[in-house]
Amino acid sequence: MSEDTIRIGLTGTVMLGRTVDFTIPPKAYAWPWGDVLPLMRRQDLNFANLETTLTTSTRKHQKTFTFKAHPDKVNCLLEANIRAVTLANNHMLDFSEEGLRETIAVLDTAGIRHVGAGMNDKAAQAPLILPVNNIRLGILSLTNDESSWKAGPGHPGVNYVDLYDGAAQQLLLDNIVRLRQHVDHVLVSIRWGSNMQEEPNPLFIELAHEIIDHGASIIHGHGAHIFQGVEVYRNKLILYDTGDFIDDYAVDQVLRNDRSFFYIVEADRTSIPRLELIPVLIADGHVGLATENDRIEAIRRMKDLSSALGTRIDSHPHMPDPDAFLQYTVNPSPCG
Questions:
Q1: Residue 153: exposed, middle, or buried by beta-carbon count in 10 A (0-12, 13-18, 19+)?
Q2: Could you give the C-alpha distances from 22 to 18, 221, 232, in angstroms and in order?
Q3: Helices 166-180 and 202-213: crossing angle, nearest 10°?
Q4: C-alpha to C-alpha distance for 110 and 92, rounded to whole angstroms
Q5: What's the confidence (pLDDT) of residue 176?
Q6: Which residues contact 199 (CB under 8 A, 6 or more apart)?
Q7: Checking DSSP bridges between strand 185-191 and strand 53-54, what pairing results, if any?
């Protein structure tokens, strides 16, 4: 592939804590990725929503679900070529500021970049700029959940943004404009919406269009724990929700939160010619390529949800990649 082209692998929620942490065999850090791993390793970089603290802290926040994995599980991310993660979610302070501090230190030591949380508000709001081949990718990340965890001038936290507040929206849009001046593409990663919500909030659709209008090329949404449709807007990509990728969550037999996709964005200096969708299935604490009925149903649902957003998804069974029968390409032009 040309040095003026990059392939970015995007995943939904990666939760390596709780029973997943205990299930991973000793030092078998590649285990959680199953047979998706070779595909992940072929991308120029992978970016994920890390919904797990990497800490030994015992200062648990008083809430229903708290997630942590032993710090050595950072090696799982390295095995999968995950070069950057977002920490802007509703679990980064599950084990207090102490847990967040250790998580950041563990990622820094491993050389994994992070965005969306930090030791103060400036660090939490700061974008990433990643040079990949001859392309500069900028990443901004925020969450619309856990307002009390918002980073401040003198304390750690996440980049909380009230998406229902006009002034907060405008500040976000201004930050995108500034970042776009220094990079070829801007990726905005957002934790928004409610659990098990099948379609994006109309307000968020309107905001997503504003985000693209102000210079973003890709929106990486997460938070619903089920995938939502893809919209191609002004030849840019809006992944309203990328669902889950690794976890031990209970499976809703109707909404099937165990089904999702590995999203591969191909970009050159000025455009995004292709998005490939690889159906995956979570089972027993690890992810694998979806087969048979799981693959068929995930694709059918994604096509239906995306069609409702004006985007057609075409099947291309003869693509040259060895996993071609699992790849589906979003047409770069919306339906009429």
A1: exposed
A2: 7, 28, 40
A3: 30
A4: 18
A5: 98
A6: 228, 229, 305, 308
A7: unpaired
DSSP 170: H
Query: Which residues have C-beta within 8 Å of that of residue 32, sequence separation ≥ 6?
Result: 16, 20, 24, 76, 246, 285, 286, 287
176: which residues sit within 8 A by CB, 6+ positions away? 140, 186, 188, 211, 214, 215, 216
Quote the pTM value: 0.94
Residue written as token pair 């969306």: 116
Q: What number of other Cβ atoms are within 10 A of residue 34's Cβ?
A: 17
- 9 neighbors 263 (Cβ within 8 angstroms): yes
pLDDT in tens, 196-242: 999 999 999 999 999 999 999 999 999 999 999 999 999 999 999 99
Contacts of 299 (CB under 8 A, 6+ apart): 277, 279, 313, 315, 328
